[in-house]
Amino acid sequence: MLNFKLDLQFFAHKKGGGSASTNRNHDSNSKNRGVKKYGGQIVNAGNILIRQLGSKFFAGSNTYFGKDYTINAKCNGIVEYYRKKVNRKYKTFVKVIEFPKT
User: Fold this and answer.
1) Which residue, among 37, 74, 42, has the nearest Cα to 57 in the 3D structure?
2) Is the pLDDT of residue 23 over 60?
3) CATH: 2.40.320.10, 3.20.20.60, 3.40.50.300, 2.40.50.100. Which one for 31-98?
């Protein structure tokens, strides 16, 4: 009777890439989101009031949404923030009070 001793060992065929070798510790570029103009500040037409991800703030009078939910001023004036009840929830709106024409 023959006794065969089978000794099989399996080794990795690819290098084990950990987080240090693949990621290289790079950070993403900053998105610079947030409120850019606060209540009571004077703005010009086209100024960015808020940069946001999604619609946390909503556009009121004399403001408009950009394609990335950025809220811009339509005219020269003073920024004002206010809360309004919409569908049983309070939402924050931004508006620009236009300067009177002289």
Assistant:
1) 37
2) no
3) 2.40.50.100
